[in-house]
Amino acid sequence: MAQETSAPPRAQEKKQYLSHDLVLQILLHLPTIGSLLRFTSVSRTWHNTITGDRSFQGHHFLLQEPGVLIRPRIRSYAAEHTPRYTTPGLYQWERKSRPDTATLVQAMDSLPEDEAWRHKLAHCDGLVLVPTNGCRVRVLNPATRRVLTLPLTESQRGGAPFEGSFGLGHDSRSGTYKVARFFYRSGGASLLTGVYPSNLGMEVFSIGRDQRWRETAVPPPYPVFAGQTATFFKGSLLWMINESLILGNRDVAVRGLLHFNLEDESFSVMPAPPRCPELWYSTSNLAEIRGELCLAHLCPPNHGTPATTQASRIVWIWACDGAIPPRWVQRHAIDAPSCIHMIAASDADNDGVVLQRGSCILECSERWGIEGVVFRKRALYYFKV
């Protein structure tokens, strides 16, 4: 009988394997935060990379199409021709792919504009702070559509209108996002003609760690403008100092920015740019653009250039890299009738800036010159999807 021979063992199928570097490249090119977060449940390694690796998050952010969050204000009239403003939500403006369209990403129907008109939005790493004149402070994440309402402070429990200022930033030492609240201890800024540090206070709330607001060990040394939202820049929050509340009590005027370090929660003063005689909330504003701190300042009449007229004044835009002391460099000089608020960097020019003036969105695409500044005015259409 012929000897039976068994078939050779079946060769094991070769397992497909993706290296971690290749996985990172795939994840980096996912188009949205929402699509990225869906992959956190695949494995613990992917979860830790997506949610905890700051380097990965930074690279993913840089690869996304530049966009701007816009909060439109809709005006209507009630009895006796009194204007009323409402905000339907936050809209995403993708300037390259959809230059004339803004899409709703976060509804805000539950937040009346009458309650939030005074304080501007603050943002950090995609999170948006919505402070109000009332008692509530909210942090929005438009990517996940989540809303966090912070607890009340002791001074807010009485329900009185808040005369202070807020800010949002990231503390790299503790890895947490912090909300800062500047406040006046006695009656608010409107009742003061001069202040001392004992009248000022700063409270901090660390998201994900703190259960209640806590006051800083040292009070702020100088007052800021009520309703002015801080600008986050390289680990610190910055406000413009309100000089009008200092001069009554101090012999020396302090001109510049109140600097609040989120790591050690200490205060210092950043000097203002040269040729800026006074910084006012209505004539100056701050923004981080291309990794630089930028300050737009509306010059007084007959200041800056001979071409300035009563109906047209010059807006200087200064920039610094955050060094101590700061090295301010003049970037733009713009002929404008009022202060222009900086929004973001322009895609049209390496030195350009996207600006807001009233309800208009403008782009400044030339580096220098009053006569040579080129604007492109945009009319946006808002959609809900």
Descriptive report:
The protein is mainly β and 385 residues long. The protein has five helices and 25 strands. It has helices spanning 20-28, 33-37, 44-52, 54-63, 113-116; strands at residues 67-70, 74-77, 83-86, 89-94, 101-107, 122-124, 127-131, 137-141, 146-149, 164-171, 176-184, 200-206, 214-215, 231-233, 236-240, 256-261, 266-271, 284-289, 292-298, 313-320, 329-336, 341-345, 353-357, 360-364, 381-383. The chain starts with 19 loop residues before the first helix and ends with a strand. The model is unreliable at 189-193, 304-311 and 367-377 (pLDDT under 50).
Alpha carbon gyration radius: 25 Å
End-to-end distance: 78 Å
Strand content: 35-45%
**Overall pLDDT score:** 75
Name the helix and strand elements from N-terminus to C-terminus, one letter apiece.
HHHHEEEEEHEEEEEEEEEEEEEEEEEEEE
Put the structure in a nutshell.
With 385 residues, the protein is mainly beta.
List the SSEs and their pairings.
Blueprint lengths: L19 H9 L4 H5 L6 H9 L1 H10 L3 E4 L3 E4 L5 E4 L2 E6 L6 E7 L5 H4 L5 E3 L2 E5 L5 E5 L4 E4 L14 E8 L4 E9 L15 E7 L7 E2 L15 E3 L2 E5 L15 E6 L4 E6 L12 E6 L2 E7 L14 E8 L8 E8 L4 E5 L7 E5 L2 E5 L16 E3 L2
Parallel strand pairs: 5-25
Antiparallel strand pairs: 1-4, 2-3, 4-5, 6-7, 7-8, 8-9, 10-11, 11-12, 12-13, 14-15, 15-16, 16-17, 18-19, 19-20, 20-21, 22-23, 23-24
